[in-house]
Amino acid sequence: MVHKTSRSIAGVSALVLVLAACGRGDEQTGGQGSADIAQGPATGTITVWAMGAEGEKLPALAKEFEDANPGVDVQVTAIPWDAAHNKFTSAITAGQAPDAAMVGSTWMGEFAGMGALDATPSSIDKNAFFEGAQRTTEVGGTSYGIPWYVETRLLYYRKDLAKTAGYETPPTDWPGLKEMAKALQAKSGAKWGIGLQAGGTGSWQSLLPFAWSNGAALTKNNDAAYNFDSPEMQETLKYYGSFFSEGIADKEAPAQPTTEPDFVSGRVPMFISGPWMMSAVEKLGGEGFKDKYDVMPMPTKKTSSSFVGGSNFVVFKETKNRDSAWKFVNWLASPQVQVKWYQSSTDLPSVKSAWQDSALTADTKLAKFGKQLDTAQSPPTFATWEQAITALDTEVEKVARSGADPAAALKAAQASADSIGTGR
Asked: Which domains does the chain have, with CATH numbers?
C-alpha cells in the first residue's frame, strides 16, 4: 500500500461543529436520532474501550483529540478480542459500560436489544458513510453510533497467469469467472482454479458476496424473519457448490488454508479476501510480485456486490459524559481523522469523502476496494445473527464437500433460523 506523510490534524475541534452543520436530521436513513450534541469543546473524562490492534493504536489518536480539546481526558482501555463480548455484556448488565467503545458490527443488534446504546444524534450526517456500512449501525430503524472503519472483499487473481490462459482483462460475470478458473487450470498449471472456503466457521462470508450479486435478500416480511432459502440463495449456493463438484475448487480445503503461498506459487491463482492480503502476498512474493497480480470486483449476476465488515463506534446510554463522548465519536468520523487512522492502522475509511485523499487514491488496487464499497452490503443486525449463521455454515459445507442438494441444505438452514428467531 502507498502511505504518504499524514497531514496535521491539530486544531480540528471545530470539525465537530462542521460535521454537525452538515446533518440533515430526520431526512436521513436510519430512523430517529437522539438529542443533539452541545456546542463547544469536549470536557471531562471519557472512558473508551477498543479491541485488538485498534485498542493498542487508539491512544495515540485520542491524544490528538485531547490536544484539540484541552479540557478533556480520553482514557482508552485495550481489550483482547476473545474476551471482549463477555466483558461488554457483563459491564452492560452491571451498569458499568464505558462512555464509548468500538463494537463489532454483528453485536449491534444484541447490545441495542439490551437497551445499552444511545441513538446517534440527528446532526451526525449518516449520508457521509458508505450505505452498507451505515446500515450496520441500524437496529429497528434507529442508528446507534457510527461505522468507524470498514473492509470489503474482492477477487485476487494472478494477472500474469491469466494472460497465459488467454485473459488480458478479468471477467465481469458469473459464467466468465468459472471459465477463467477452468482456463487457469488447463493452461497455466494451476492445481485449483480458485480458492473458496469449503464450509466451516465463517464460510457465509465467502458465499454472501455472490448471493448479494444475485439480488438475494437475507430478511423477509419487513425484516421480521430470516430469508436463507429464497430462489436467489438457492441459485447462488448451486453456483458456489459447482466449483467444488466440477473440480475447480478444492472440496478438501483445510479450515485454515495456505492462501498466500498457494497464490504466490500459482497453485491457487484466485481467491477472495480483503485489502490486508495485499501486503501479505507481496511480502511473500518478493520484489516485483505486486506487478504479477491484481484485484477485480465481485462478478455480476444481477449486480456486483460484496461483504462490508469492520467495526462501529458507539456511545452507551448510561454515560455520565454524553456530549463529550459523542464529540469524540463524531471527531473519529471526520475525513481528515479517517485518513490519519488509515495511515496508522491500515483500517479503511467508512466516510466516502476520505477516499478522495491521495493516501488512498495513489494505490490503484486499494481504490478498487473503495469502488466496491459503493455497493457492498452487510448482514442484518439481528441479535441472533451469530447463532443463526452457524447452521448456514454447516449446510454450505455439506454442499461443498459432499455434494448435498443446495435447496435441501438451505431449507435446513432456514428451519434452524426460524427456530432461533431474530431476537426482536
From this structure: 14-152+308-373 (3.40.190.10), 154-307+381-420 (3.40.190.10)
